[in-house]
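Record passed on underneath.
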Amino acid sequence: MSMQRVLTTLGCALATVLATAWSAAPPAESARPAATTTVRTHDGPVRGAAHDGYRTFEGIPYAAPPVGRLRWAPPRRAAPWSEVRDATRPASACPQPAGEVPGGSTDEDCLHLNVTTPDGTGPARPRPVIVWLHGGGFTTGAGSSYDAHRMVTRGDVVVVTVDYRLGALGFLAHSGLPDSGAFGLADQQAALRWVRAEIGAFGGDAHNVTLAGESAGGYSVCAQLASPAAAGLFERAIIESGPCTGRPGRPFAPSSVPLSTARAAGADLAAKVGCRSTRNVVACLRRVDVSRLLAAQDTDQRPAHATPLLPSDPAAAIAAGHFPHVPVLIGNNHDEGNGWAAGIIQAGHPVTPDTWPDVVAAFFPSPGQAKAIVREYPVHRTDGGPVFGAVIGDANFACPTTRTDSLLAAHVPLWRYEFADEHAPPLTPGTPPFPLGAPHASELPYLFDLGGRPRDLTAAQHRLADTMIDYWTRFARTADPNGPSLPHWSRQTVLSLAPDDIVPTRTVQTRHHCAFWNTLG
């Protein structure tokens, strides 16, 4: 196996782990809520669970199961029901390999969402709504992994987390499948339409919706900004570590691909599962077992553009100003690449002065580019890991986020942050080969209890978590994150978020070598 194949595979695998490092787990018996509550939707009544200060409604279908002839079809409305539907437990995650979801999932009946709402909500006093799109490289993840009760109770907002089709089931493209290449994005739009129609019954304001996400979820927000079909479905956007200017040549950050590229990948998948030479390729693919599809699909999954849902690459649409002009909160983490670098080193690929040129060449096959990167980021005897992490983070996240920032800010109010807690709780078990700082996804435990489990935060980190929730929910409420008792967040600078050290900074571009990356192209 080539060095590039090894490193790319390891990197994508670690991206899955880092997207949300903890799997969803049911609460212990002693913690199960005793009281329940019922809400009536247009499709039928659902019974959720009452907790201390908030209510949860889990596993609500927002579209019909995408099975049979609906596999690789746009989402259809869920069938109504008359009996009260239990919504006290999560539904199945969408099909995916083992990883974030223990044992993975092969259940295609997965188009569900989860609603968390504070006590006291109702039509007379609706709360702002945050719709959260999970990360996971468009291959793994589940909305139920994100326990939003702290955001809901502290920020007085309603949070909706969404499951959408992943992998080949969400992003396969084929000439025989109309609208193919972006079914996962279509699912997200169906969930937003459900929110418009139903969230009022849960105490949410259907006309004050913030679409938010991290990593692949953040890039999904970019895609929805660029999709004409999503216009009018949300009023604000939050993009965490999913810059809209990502591109396939920088493989760690999410991006989209041209429809022609996606169709070529779809043809390869059809061949792998024995469908390429059949008379009706689509019918053959729809008969293939889910586990076989998961085994055959590429590790790298990306939505297709040049499609009806996504007419152009989000980067091009945003550069041209062709997107709804809604306020945006956007940011990245200080050490985005360190988790990948550590994982690759631990897998037996050390980064030393001798190996560094070959490591760079594996990701940047152009000899001129590789040599320029080695000169810009020299590796000395003991700092190979952090230097490798800086290259991954700067090239894939920090500088593309800076570029996205400048493109969006030309048209809309925008606030930029950099999460910079150098002692953020570890995302993976074991001892890393070097301190990871604030790697990809490390901001998530400050906003959510991942997998229903609170992280071990220090008192100062708890204060930072509270402040971040205040910023995020204030932005959702008023389109401006600033508020009483919060450190001022200027639109002219990047706000660095660290425990007891929330300060504006103007050094992001120089610290992350963005002038170099802009020149490198």
